[in-house]
Amino acid sequence: MTQINRRRLFGLGAAGVAAVGAGALATQTLTEGTAPAAADATAAPVPFYGEHQAGIVTPAQDRLHFVSFDVVTKERAELIDMLQEWTAAAARMTQGKDAGTFGALGGSPEAPPDDTGEALGLPASGLTLTIGFGPSLFDDRFGLKSRRPAALADLPKFPGDDLRPEISGGDICVQACAHDPQVAVHAIRNLARIGFGKVSVRWSQLGFGRTSSTSRAQATPRNLMGFKDGTNNLKLEDAAMLRDQLWVAPSDGAAWMAGGSYLVTRKIRMNIETWDRAPLSEQEQIFGRNKGEGAPLGGHKEFDEPDFAARGAGGTPVIADDAHVRLAHPSTHGGARLLRRGYNYVDGSDGLGRLDAGLFFIAYQRDPRKQFVPIQRMLARSDSLNEYIKHISSGLFACPPGLRDAGDYWGRTLFT
């Protein structure tokens, strides 16, 4: 078993004490099935330690900085050493502290500071950092080939995919969510700094305006097409459903992943200008919901159960056979569900006066082969929304369980 050196253990321990104190002050325990307290959620820290990683069922924050790294070191020991340093820094930053022991202003003035400093004076802002390991990490470099879970099978090519390899995949991902974009960017910047020479950034994505609710305490947000998104999303209060659909069980075949979850990302560009010229009635038929309330067509309230058997004039379905809500509904996929926590993005324009904008889709699940893959296969084949969207990047990662205490580190269950 790899030992954590004294300096890093000190960093972890200090952050661990902070985490316990902050958790007590906020009276907020984001474990399975527990709703957040009514404290100032936009400033308060989220506990770093627990059975599951924070940033999955944590009530979705408003801002995202997602990054995918390629591992450039060839040494297993160096990779583990970096993961330990990352863990110490993450434990501190999620509690509103500097990334390193000496911070942005301490230490030797002749040496680079331990923290880049742009988050000085800012609160924790609900920062969560969630790590995942991509299929490419399980090659011959680090002796992990035999530890690749069967559920981490490469995603198939779906009809209509226009994936760009340079913004897809990666060995390791880190998802930073916070209520302040500067806090999220600061966290990723400092992890990249710590990892210099061992990892390099493959691609990254900024996101704003969460497009899903992960708690019943949150209102359903809207995507850039103006529709409420993720009405039927899994919620942190759904304890039994989370055990069945979200968390990997010891019986699933990869012991090191027990308590973890599998992450799928898809960058979905929207043809915004074309969509904006579509009639309201067409937009609502495509989604199968009305645009104002978000109710399924034929219903009255957002959370009304869709009636897929309902017929309108001439016997045509009220909710069309190719409507998004019908094709994505759990009843169409044997009850399979996803926990979505995606974000809107706008990456400027494409040089032709068109917005480069859309949805950065993020979904967690127990087994992508049984959840995301069949759902996306049907959507890619039949969804009428496909006329207005294009999938341009894709990622798949195994997110291990949470950290037990200050002596633990990201990836310990994989590498030991």
From TrEMBL:
EC number: 1.11.1.-
Catalytic activity: heme b + 2 H(+) = protoporphyrin IX + Fe(2+)
Subcellular location as annotated: Cell envelope
GO annotations of cellular component type: cell envelope; cytosol
Lineage start: Bacteria, Bacillati, Actinomycetota, Actinomycetes, Streptosporangiales
Protein name: Deferrochelatase
EC class of the enzyme, as a word: oxidoreductase
NCBIfam families: Dyp_perox_fam, tat_substr_1
Function: Involved in the recovery of exogenous heme iron. Extracts iron from heme while preserving the protoporphyrin ring intact.
Presence of keyword Zinc-finger: no
Cofactor note: Binds 1 heme b (iron(II)-protoporphyrin IX) group non-covalently per subunit.
Domain Dyp-type peroxidase N-terminal: 53-208
Annotated Dyp-type peroxidase C-terminal domain residues: 220-402
Signal peptide start-end: 1-26
Similarity field: Belongs to the DyP-type peroxidase family.
Organism listed in the record: Sphaerisporangium rufum
